Target: Multiple sugar transport system permease protein
Amino acid sequence: MDLVKSMEVKGEHNHTEAKKYKWKQKLTPIGFISPVLLIFSLFLFFPVLFAFYMSFHQWGMIGTPEFVGFHNYVRLFQDPLFWTSIKNTLIFSLSVPLKVAIALFIAVLLNQKIRGLGFYRAAFFFPVVLSMVVVGLVWQWMFSPSYGFINYLLEKLGLPLQNMLIDSDQAMIVLIIVSIWKGLGSNLLLFLAGLQAIPSSVYEAAEIDGANSWQKFWHITVQLLKPTTLFVLIITLIGSFKIFDLAYVITGGGPGTSTMVLVHYIYQEAFQRFDMGYASAAAYVFFIILFILTLVQMRMFKSDSEF
Model:
């Protein structure tokens, strides 16, 4: 009996030790990442929750916040400048398909066996590593009506000079051109990675079946790149809605309000007029718009991406 009891006690002890070991295995990784989680929570989750709280208050960064309920949201939807900023942001975001198409086209070209391939890839990616402010200042100089390089070329070609930065109909075109140049490299690398993941045997089989270049591109490349295309579309759309640096540096939201985008509007309300509650409400409306657009895109591509 004593031997049986001792074996039972030993078995229970081993079981307890095993449970402790399992818990230790689970808690050890959490211990290692806890500093990152703390910083992440401090600088992301807390500001998000605090902004939601502030959207129902009126606060000028000094004093005690005053609860106003949904007044900030009502006021927001009644502000014509808010709707103007949404309209300008949507107009700017219409360039997303063009950005994706250009990146895909160049990626297909660079996926061929050509000399100097590394140089071309580095050249296209170079704008990505540049500061947005630097890019904005350089292109502001290039599009300058009086001494810009673009007008210099137009003059040499005998074409009429353009006042693109001070023309409300052309200023948005400038932002679109610069954003295409700036973001091309990152989309290009994503498409190149997707292209290199497509087995060459699929193209070889298509050639045996008599497919031409266009048929191979449309029925193989485009179809197999749909998961990559979905990802590129989503991040490019989000990036287009988040545009602020270029608009602020190149046009400052002008001429008039022709390039006043949504993030610039939120910045103006928060850090120039110090209406933090109102700006928080605008930020949450901005988040909801992005969330809905992302869901729509994912639903549109869902069945194709599963292929």
About this structure: The chain has a mean pLDDT of 85. The longest strand covers residues 57-58.
